[in-house]
Write a structure and sequence with these properties.
By secondary structure, the protein is mainly β. The protein has 3 helices and 11 strands; from the N terminus they run E-E-E-E-H-E-H-E-E-E-E-H-E-E.
């Protein structure tokens, strides 16, 4: 099977947030979609190893904030590049509240939904949650960030402006370079340690897949 065929599927980028007895946590997902219009039902897919997964499984409630095209990499790194089991992702971070004490991430986001789980389907590594939308609000005027655009941002094909209201401008295509890329979510390894020297238990920080799914690519 040509797994690269799946790379043509379009995705957005979202912040999934939840709370349990005062403990807030959030993670970045790209698997969020509308299932029906009346009633409004959505679905999300969450890795079982994520703390956010466990809290949603317990409480049945979450918010989804839709990242805008101008969202900063620092915001994505805060919620997507570290584990809530090891750090408090909301420490020193100004977030709102979306009813029932659910955290609401507004920075860098264009819209948000408050959702209640109605059923879930179990898979070996992930759970698919189906939820009714209890509330929704528009936060800002901007285009949504696609996962493809995020990859261009991360690899330097576009640059961010310090002015969040300005358009991002394309930059000259850099010289092709060899990188190690996750063939599941397209994450590009950019650590200080040569990829070949990483321990065998290294996993992709975005999708949690093992080192074996990385391949050398030219970007």
């Amino acid at each position: 099977m040509d797994i690269s065929a799946l790379f043509s599927i379009t995705y957005g980028l979202f912040i999934l947030a939840t709370e349990d007895e005062g403990q807030k946590n959030a993670c970045i997902i790209n698997t969020f979609s509308q299932v029906t219009q009346d009633p409004v039902i959505i679905s999300i897919t969450v890795m079982k190893k994520n703390l956010t997964h466990d809290i949603i499984k317990k409480t049945g409630a979450f918010s989804v904030s839709i990242l805008g095209k101008h969202a900063s990499m620092k915001l994505i790194e805060r919620f997507g590049y570290q584990s809530g089991r090891e750090v408090d992702k909301f420490a020193d971070f100004d977030c709102g509240c979306f009813g029932n004490n659910l955290p609401l991430v507004e920075a860098g986001c264009i819209a948000a939904l408050r959702c209640k789980v109605i059923k879930s389907d179990d898979f070996p590594t992930h759970t698919v949650f189906f939820a009714s939308v209890e509330d929704a609000k528009t936060l800002a005027k901007d285009q949504p960030m696609t996962y493809a655009y995020y990859r261009d941002l991360k690899t330097g094909k576009v640059k961010q402006s310090d002015d969040m209201d300005s358009e991002l401008e394309p930059v000259a295509s850099p010289e092709p370079k060899e990188v190690w890329q996750c063939m599941v979510c397209h994450y590009v390894y950019d650590g200080d340690i040569p990829f070949e020297d990483l321990p065998d238990d290294y996993v992709c920080p975005l999708c949690g897949q093992p080192k074996s799914v990385f391949e050398k690519q030219q970007l």
